């Protein structure tokens, strides 16, 4: 799928610098990544550009400017133009490698692969910034399938009523051609396959206006003289030897053409950025112009190469890039020819391919298919819906859809509204700086992350402020040496220590708990992660292996929640049903996962596992580092009556990081102590706040849900035969399905989104094929 990259330039200038926002995402989707940086001041950039431009204009290569402005010089300054272009390239790339801009560059390299097809949109009101040759950016040149386009920060989607045409309608305007050869342009336009080209040669203003109003055009083409004039760079096209027009003087006719489906304007003429700016104000989807005066032969060769690429099936951006790069063969006579063509884009629109423009020739218009008798059609819809439902549910039962279901689940978890941090929890983190401070103070860590001296000080300081519970999420499988610490570990009744259960698959017998902490104040720290390494389940209790070094029956998070709730008079017990043996805390029953819960088809769900309903918050709880809490005054209210979690967030000597729905890549993983905080918060919130636990529907109800969306897909395909209307209906239905699934997840129900979406689209496809076959037979 095509990647969409947007570079937004905020207020500023070459004297002050620019703020820049980089957005990266999939085509037709919200950006998945956004980062803001800055380009430093570079006042001499305009000077380098102006020197190159001045030399380029002195070449006098038969430009398609206003005929009165054409000049020809016999002085060869080609070498000077090449040298100034080289200097501009170096200075431009040095500017884009500035330290302030580097985070954006690194994020680009991290998120995008050289094999990706990438549309890059540069949004800025600064006309000088837009004139710079952005295609020579060394970062873009690393990506052979990337092309950049210009855009204004102000735009909107035009809800056009594009009607299917039997061919691609092209209005070709051939304006004043004094001194240039536009016959070649006309001949090449005839090479477009499946195209109906209407030529207007040196038209009068009224004739052009009537044509624009008269038909639904897909492409508008202009060849002839043009220029950008005045302080605001207003673009003008020269219709004939006496008349010229600005885009503003064609505003209403062009607006009508855009609303009726005009997709692309090509101005194979000079100095077209002024034209593009005014057309962009009308929200035309795409425009191709020449940023500087263009030699006659360069304009013709570009058009030829573009037609070849675009009509052969390449995307608009790839066709422009290939045509632009092929102009390099002319640069011995026409320096910087590859710098001239540029796309101007309405970011609200997705460029159509040539096949999509010629859609009626490759796909029947479903309106013209003879209608299927109503009763027979509905029976086929019902049968198709049942068949698709059975196939999808079978695939789901076999686990084929499991990966995609879990990915959709993660996306929805990230999309929930923010709940804010849990005020009942405080996390004391041990980061790399805390480890370094302990070593600088000569404290021995003994293979763990906190020295006996620091741990003693920490427990002493925490205890005096009366927390409800203290969770030490740090392995200490060796006896303490300092008498004060031994006493603290034994006598702190609200302290929970950790151990790790055995792993029979890896023949690991686990990790012992701190020997000073009695068994009733121990909890295992084991997590259950899925095949993709993501923790989505919460293990509450389990029967430890006989040979395990950890005998704790309850999880670390469960023990902390028990301590907190018991202080409020809320007790925990197991339900009486021996077969299920669910844990009940107060009035809340934590229902265990079965072996076939939701997307977990065939996944081992032994032990007391529930789905982990992560708290929807950027920060699960307040945090303070070990150094801060030991060396700084503490607000008693920050500790009193809270659960204090102590754990490691350092990535150096003691990495404890886990993949979660919020990210599974190394730089996105969550520290183990934060995952524990989410688990503790889940139990407390369910019991005290009545926050929903995650559950799934009964299998029968899930089948009905999936079947309902299959039936809807069948109805849509039966109701609408026109492809554009059907595609819109399917898109709206899919969006409704997503937001319903997201809303249900917020309320605590994980419903099958991917199987339902697959059923919807599959039934639409099946019924549509049936309609076409019936129509062809009749």
List keywords for this structure.
18% strand; 6-stranded parallel beta sheet; 30 strands; single chain; Rossmann fold; alpha/beta; 11-stranded mixed beta sheet; 778 residues; 4 domains
Q: What structural category characterises the helix and strand content?
A: alpha/beta
Content of β-strand: 15-25%
Number of helix segments? 24
Radius of gyration: 34 Å
Segments where pLDDT lies below 50 for 5+ residues?
66-74, 360-374
The mean pLDDT is: 87
Could you give a short account of the major beta sheet?
A: 11 strands, mixed
Q: How would you describe this structure to a colleague?
A:
With 778 residues, this protein is an alpha/beta fold. Helix content is 38%, strand content 18%. It is built from 24 helices and 30 strands. The strands form seven sheets. An eleven-stranded mixed sheet has the order 3-2-1-4-5-14-13-12-8-6-7, with helices on both faces. Strands 18-17-16-28-15-27 form a six-stranded parallel sheet. Helix 6 (183-189) runs parallel beside helix 10 (296-311) and helix 22 packs parallel to helix 24. The radius of gyration is 34 Å and the shape is globular.
């Amino acid at each position: 799928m095509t990647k969409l990259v947007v570079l937004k330039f905020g207020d500023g200038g070459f004297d002050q610098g620019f703020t820049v926002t980089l957005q990266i995402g999939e085509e037709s989707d919200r950006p998945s990544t956004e980062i803001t940086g800055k380009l430093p001041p570079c006042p001499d950039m305009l000077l380098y550009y102006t020197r190159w431009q001045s030399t380029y204009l002195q070449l006098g290569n038969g430009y398609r400017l206003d005929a009165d402005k054409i000049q020809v010089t016999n002085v060869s300054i080609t070498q000077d133009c090449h040298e100034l272009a080289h200097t501009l390239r170096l200075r431009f790339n040095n500017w884009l490698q500035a330290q302030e801009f580097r985070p954006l560059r690194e994020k680009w390299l991290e998120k995008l692969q050289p094999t990706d097809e990438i549309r890059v949109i540069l949004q800025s009101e600064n006309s000088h910034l837009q004139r710079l040759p952005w295609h020579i950016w060394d970062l873009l040149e690393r990506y052979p399938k990337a092309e950049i386009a210009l855009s204004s920060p102000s735009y909107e989607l035009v809800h056009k009523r594009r009607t299917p045409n039997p061919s691609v309608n092209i209005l070709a305007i051939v304006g004043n051609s004094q001194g240039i050869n536009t016959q070649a342009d006309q001949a090449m336009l005839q090479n477009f396959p499946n195209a109906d080209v209407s030529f207007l040669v040196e038209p009068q203003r009224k004739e052009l206006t009537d044509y624009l109003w008269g038909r639904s055009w897909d492409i508008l083409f202009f060849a002839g003289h043009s220029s950008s004039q005045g302080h605001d760079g207003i673009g003008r096209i020269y219709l004939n030897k006496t008349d010229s027009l600005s885009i503003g003087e064609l505003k209403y006719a062009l607006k009508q053409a855009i609303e009726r489906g005009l997709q692309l304007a090509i101005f194979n003429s000079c100095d077209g950025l002024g034209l593009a700016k005014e057309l962009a104000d009308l929200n035309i989807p795409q425009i191709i112009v020449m940023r500087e005066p263009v030699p006659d032969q360069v304009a013709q060769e570009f058009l030829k190469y573009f037609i070849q690429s675009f009509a052969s099936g390449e995307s608009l951006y790839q066709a422009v890039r290939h045509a632009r790069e092929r102009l390099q063969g002319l640069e011995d006579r026409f320096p910087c020819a590859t710098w001239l063509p540029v796309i101007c884009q309405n970011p609200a629109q997705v460029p159509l391919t040539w096949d999509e423009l010629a859609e009626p020739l490759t796909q029947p218009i479903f309106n013209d298919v003879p209608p299927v008798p109503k009763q027979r059609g509905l029976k086929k819809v019902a049968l198709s819906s049942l068949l698709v439902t059975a196939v999808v549910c079978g695939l789901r039962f076999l686990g084929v859809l499991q990966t995609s279901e879990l990915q959709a689940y993660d996306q929805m978890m990230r999309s929930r509204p923010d709940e804010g941090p849990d005020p009942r929890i405080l996390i004391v983190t041990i980061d790399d700086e805390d480890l370094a401070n302990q070593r600088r103070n000569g404290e021995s860590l003994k293979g763990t992350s906190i020295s006996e001296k620091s741990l003693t000080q920490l427990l002493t300081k925490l205890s005096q402020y009366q927390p409800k519970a203290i969770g030490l999420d740090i392995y200490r499988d060796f006896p303490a040496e300092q008498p004060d610490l031994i006493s603290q570990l034994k006598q702190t009744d609200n302290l929970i220590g950790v151990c790790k259960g055995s792993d029979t698959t890896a023949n690991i017998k686990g990790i012992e708990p701190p020997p000073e902490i009695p068994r009733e104040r121990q909890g295992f720290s084991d997590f259950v992660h899925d095949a993709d390494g993501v923790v989505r389940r919460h293990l509450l209790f389990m029967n430890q292996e006989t040979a395990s070094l950890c005998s704790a029956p309850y999880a670390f998070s469960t023990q902390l929640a028990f301590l907190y709730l018991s202080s409020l008079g809320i007790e925990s017990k197991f339900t009486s049903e021996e077969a299920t043996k669910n844990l009940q805390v107060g009035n809340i029953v934590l229902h265990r996962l079965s072996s076939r819960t939701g997307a977990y088809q065939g996944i081992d769900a032994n032990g007391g596992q529930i789905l982990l309903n992560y708290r929807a918050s950027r920060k699960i709880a307040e945090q303070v580092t070990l150094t801060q809490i030991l060396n700084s005054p503490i607000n008693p209210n920050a500790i009193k009556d809270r659960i204090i979690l102590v754990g490691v967030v350092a990535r150096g000597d003691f990495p404890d990081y886990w993949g979660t729905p919020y990210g599974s890549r190394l730089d996105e993983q969550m520290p183990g102590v934060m995952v524990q905080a989410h688990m503790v918060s889940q139990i407390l919130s369910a019991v005290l706040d009545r926050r929903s636990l995650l559950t799934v529907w009964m299998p029968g109800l899930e089948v009905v849900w999936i079947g309902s969306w299959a039936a809807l897909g069948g109805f849509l395909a039966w109701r609408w035969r026109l492809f554009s209307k059907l595609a819109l209906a399917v898109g709206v239905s899919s969006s409704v399905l997503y937001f319903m699934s997201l809303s249900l997840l917020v309320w605590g129900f994980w419903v099958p989104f991917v199987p339902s979406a697959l059923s919807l689209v599959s039934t639409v496809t099946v019924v549509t094929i049936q309609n076409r076959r019936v129509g062809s037979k009749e």
